[in-house]
Fold these 2 entries.
Entry 1:
Amino acid sequence: MIELVGLDGDDTLWRNEEWFAEVHQAFHGLLDPYVPAGLDPVGALNEVERRNLELFGYGVKGFTLSMIETAIEVSGGRVSAGEIQRLIELGRTLLARPVELLDGVVETVDALRDAGFRLVIVTKGDLVHQETKVAGSGLADKFDGVEIVSEKDPPTYGRVLSRYGVAAERFVMVGNSVRSDVLPVLAVGARAVHIPSAVTWVHEIADHDGSVPTLASIRELPDWLAGNSPTSR
Amino acid sequence: MIELVGLDGDDTLWRNEEWFAEVHQAFHGLLDPYVPAGLDPVGALNEVERRNLELFGYGVKGFTLSMIETAIEVSGGRVSAGEIQRLIELGRTLLARPVELLDGVVETVDALRDAGFRLVIVTKGDLVHQETKVAGSGLADKFDGVEIVSEKDPPTYGRVLSRYGVAAERFVMVGNSVRSDVLPVLAVGARAVHIPSAVTWVHEIADHDGSVPTLASIRELPDWLAGNSPTSR
């Protein structure tokens, strides 16, 4: 019997990775004159991001610093101050971008509330930016809480369960990332539902063994949960 | 009767602003060849930080992006890619710097616990960096919770009180910033103790009317609270 439903933010409730894909394209174009044929600036950026993740964490600010570092590295220091300013502007565009909810989100969240589930957003990234997105989503009042976390690992989910006073078997996490929204949730004995997104960030790619419920759209979630609704007891 | 004691992190539990002062000095030295006589690069940086605060929030990553923007602006685009990389390294140094607790912190925290107070760290800045500092402080196990927040305003303190189930009159916040640790706490009807630090960040400077208890050292806190101890009821 599920009591608390956790919903991921980026690429589960609202668009995110598509905006990064646009910035990747701009980054590629900007660096193109500086890199030898065959070197992919975006591949180099992914490597720099990976190297910086522990110190910078997730989010646009660290991503922007990684873009600048990568630009300096792959250009052999030839990138200009004006081009670096352009990279900061790209980061600023990501931070200032209005929230666009994904299809079916509002109806689904309302249906889950009506069915009596407690709802929590569990999202990772820069604190201010995630708070801004939650506020801009218009969804905050429909949720019992918002947990902005630095990493989605088993201890993090353990803390969420303890904070909401819910046993693991009464929690389900719903999200697009197998690495962040599925595997660590299963590790604490809770359940997970995978809703793949159109684009998945390279650092989030992981597989599950096929036994995890996978939905084509968040619209299918109320039906999937119907047998687990608190009001159907 | 105080039940829950909130303690600020940066410059209340551990050194922080001193490290920024060192970076300011390095920033000044790096920009010196580029700026007209009379222009203070650090003053310009403060302005850029202020402009960026809403979008970037508090913390080292936003600060580093602001340093880069300022360097490009005040140098008229003449700063080199290598110098910008040096600014990123300065940011990285701040992020990687081991935590140094301020004098008397461990003894005071232990004394407050022994006196029966519940303790919570309330700190603002980048999520990952603040979590790393809490972990590096060795203090986490002594606290009942850690609240990393994006802004210390009255709604934030309201949420902390609600999360810990404490009435405003049973909460006291202790910190070095009048703007963040005192005024918004008084605004929600709770109490505040000001412990001024050696260096205060320009964006934290504010005054109180003199009626707020002000201690010269955190070591004075247990005595100040003695009349309010849960065990002295």
Entry 2:
Amino acid sequence: MLVVHVQVHVKPEYLEAFKQATIANARESIKEPGIARFDLAQQQDDPTRFVLVEAYCTAEAPAAHKGTRHYLTWRDTVAHMMAEPRASVKFSNQFPQDADW
Amino acid sequence: MLVVHVQVHVKPEYLEAFKQATIANARESIKEPGIARFDLAQQQDDPTRFVLVEAYCTAEAPAAHKGTRHYLTWRDTVAHMMAEPRASVKFSNQFPQDADW
């Protein structure tokens, strides 16, 4: 199980638009067979910062996700909303065991 | 739903010991009524770095967690394993909706 944290810094005027576009993407992403979770959270002490937590079940799942219409729509919709380029960090799942995600 | 990311930098000689102690803590933590998830992941490009993703259902749940025996045991067990003080960031859940965690 690959867990990807995507850190996003959003321009203040786009907070609601970013949330809406990202939740729309997340709702479709969790239907993908290779995706176990696709969470969005907003930082409490700086609401312009968000983290996406994406849990992929297979090595092929991230590339499959990036080929979906909902991902491409999200990518293009939010491009101008970013205060800086987003950053992602890849993690290997340790707990719970993969079958329990 | 409060989501807390705890970033931990572990001394290289304690990687396995840290994992074992943290998984033992996580197994007990997810039994707490106020905790929805308690995930551990290890950074792929730097295995000395871990993230705990803790999802709390109520405002009281973090304090309740810090009063449990398993938390106190973990805290004391891993104290000397840290390469630097751990850092936590608090997030407000945006997706999925709280009931779906």
